[in-house]
Amino acid sequence: MMSTIILLLVLGIEVGLVIYSLKTNVMQNRFKPIVRLATFGLFALLLVFQVIQWGFQWIPLFLVLLIEAVLSGFYLVRNSPTPEKPLKIKRAILISLGHCLFLTVVLVPALIFPQFEALPVTGTYPVQTESHTLTDPTRIESYDDTGSYRNVTIQFWYPEKQQENETYPLILFSHGSFGFRGSNYSTFMELASHGYVVGSIDHTYHAFFTKQTDDKMIFVDTNFMNDAIAIQSQTGKYNEQETYELTHRWLKLRSEDMNLVLNAILENVKKERASEVYTIIDPERIGLLGHSLGGATAADLGRKRMDIDAVIVLDGTMLGEEIDYVDNQVILNQEPYPTPLLDIFNEEHFAEASAAGENYGNMKATKHAVDARQVVFVGAGHLNFTDLPLFSPVLAGMLGTGNIDSRYCLETMNEVVLNYFDYYLKDSGGLKIKAVY
């Protein structure tokens, strides 16, 4: 909303200038610089009083207005008043239209990523954050040809310790295809504010971008992105067996990433001189959480490791339940899923899963699990289980959201996630989770 108001404001100023020039029939060479200076001053005041929340999306407009203000100041200082030149109407209109178009382009980042009010946290713990980049000496990076070992970055959100020797449960998160470690920031903040250490993993080359602790930026692998889109969109590029093989390669990579991170955390917990975040982790209380392909990763590790106490899958297909492909058919795991499992669906996904029944990994695992529940959000789309609809409603709408209110969906999902982990990792209270929201 604010970005739209600013766009209308700067365009209104530009249109007002050309109308005033047409009305007076002169170029207004001294009046225009004064208006440019005033426009920059107004923008600066909006920033100072935090009407506009400073962010990367405002940088292009700030620089343009600053440059125009500086040039206008030089013009006013260096040029003494002279009689105004007669207006060339066609030229004046074309220049104004060009400037309006330029300002619109400059404001595109603010329109795509509008400022928004962050979801409030309901816990009492102040939240801190820090990042670590880990190297896996057992794996060569398959997405480049340098022969280097695979690096994985994790960011922690964790509570400020209130008492000496106080420890908190650990939650590890895995993002979806070309997501990134901050994709569920509101969820991490909510959990951390209630006394959880949350670690979110950047799956290098699967994340839209990864910023390592050495400041190196790594962007998503384009082949991975194109393949993921092709499979998601069912373009026919890959047949069923090829899809099985490709998605399971991705799952293996991500599960090894999560395994690397978890093992590194548990090793650091044992050390006497470890980073602060490791000193407050309770290694006996561990939960896994993931969205989409990240949900498949969390579920896969939840089956394989005995030290996991609870798993939540956010609208993901549990690919790990598909253990083979034989005679043009996916073979599902017959062994009961061993870890408490919560499977959260959007409405369309749940309808498709229900229609497939036990031929679909999620439904098979849930029915035969030692402890499993399912939750459906009516009207939600796939991206409604991330913060993207808040961060960029335009992009989220293009990639897949439903007609549910985005804030309601996130707030309610975060309540469900918190309640579930409280029940299994803190033994606090009862489960207050409905089947449908």
UniProtKB/TrEMBL annotation:
In its UniProt record, a GO molecular function of this protein is:
1-alkyl-2-acetylglycerophosphocholine esterase activity
Highest lineage ranks of the organism?
A: Bacteria, Bacillati, Bacillota, Clostridia, Eubacteriales
Q: What is this protein identified as?
A: Isoform II
Respond yes or no to whether keyword Signal is given for this record.
no
Pfam families linked: PAF-AH_p_II
Matching PANTHER family, A to Z? Answer: PLATELET-ACTIVATING FACTOR ACETYLHYDROLASE
Q: In its UniProt record, which GO terms are filed under biological process?
A: lipid catabolic process
Keyword terms, alphabetized: Hydrolase, Lipid degradation, Lipid metabolism, Membrane, Transmembrane, Transmembrane helix
Note whether Membrane occurs among the keywords: yes
Q: Which organism is it from?
A: Desulfitobacterium dichloroeliminans (strain LMG P-21439 / DCA1)
Q: For this UniProt entry, which segments traverse the membrane?
A: 6-22, 34-52, 58-77, 89-112
